Amino acid sequence: MEALTALVGGADLVVCGLDPARQANDWPDEALPPSFAGVVVATSGSTGRPKWVMLSRRALIRAAQMTHERLGGPADWVNPLPAHYVAGLMTIVRAVVGGRSYLAVSPDLSDLPDSDGYLSVVPAQLHRCLDDPILTGQLSGFQAVLVGGARLDEGLQARAIAAGVRVIATYGMSETCGGVVYDGLPLPGVTINLDDDSRIGLTTPTLFDGYVGEPDLSAAVRQGSTFYTNDRGVLVEGRLHVLGRIDEVVKSGGVSVDLAGLQGLADQFFGDQVAVFAVPDPIWGSRIVVASTGPSWPTINDSLAEIVDSAARPRGFLALDRLPRLASGKIDRTSLTERWRNNGELD
What we know:
Elements: H1 2-8, E1 14-15, E2 38-42, E3 52-56, H2 57-71, E4 77-79, H3 86-98, E5 102-104, E6 118-121, H4 123-130, H5 133-139, E7 144-147, H6 154-162, E8 167-173, E9 178-182, E10 185-186, E11 191-194, E12 199-203, E13 210-211, H7 215-221, E14 222-223, E15 226-236, E16 239-245, E17 249-252, E18 255-258, H8 259-270, E19 274-281, E20 285-292, H9 297-305, E21 316-319, H10 333-343, E22 345-346
Helix pairs in contact: 2-3
């Protein structure tokens, strides 16, 4: 907190993102540009190797200002998220920039205070809170509860709204200083662009300076003030609907299968008990697999059989006590793929 207070006041450099669970050699050998002043955070690594993202002092401050413009002004911030990732980091930045207080709480929100400020959570945390009447009541006291890190299921959002919780679904990433699209609408100064493949581009003053030690990758995704994501989307009356990742469309038996759409159907039936992913397969090209913490394989297949094509039907099953998640709340599909190799069952 003290380091970030210094940063927005003009300090030269703060490095954030050194998750204690990571090995020291995760940090790249390359030196930071001598002119860089800001924060370095790691991406979540939800689909592979994490990258080190340089966020300038200017971008961080502007990101905080844009959020407060949309929310109606600064307020106190409460944070149950890891501060070494961008979502948790930005709660601190917003508090500092807005001149308000910041409070870190437990990830399970067991020590959540009564507050009329702002709160950032991931969908799994929101789901847990809505199952607890006391926590639900506390959530309803916040001016806004920002939900990011993963797709917010419409049913979960409807539950929260019905309980009087003022939830806002945010969309963004480490490379944009966190969420820059709130409930499908861009923040002030942000433009949403879609290319011919429906790939989402975000033009924003909060754009990162590049990846440490990876100039070619930086140039491939950052053009001018626009960041080209790996997500697909559609604009409906100016509101962005994220369809899923570009790489979540896989070929199974020669047929394109949208894993994000299939996950959405699984969420409707089973909530957060089932994760859908794909693994390489010599016959199918990609084999669709489901990991479950509750519903059996026959139950899942019976539920999906009448509404999905044969190619999209799961042909592998992984029973787990819990779904592996990253600190951001996203499903750790890299871990699921590894567990499948060791413990999966074939159809």
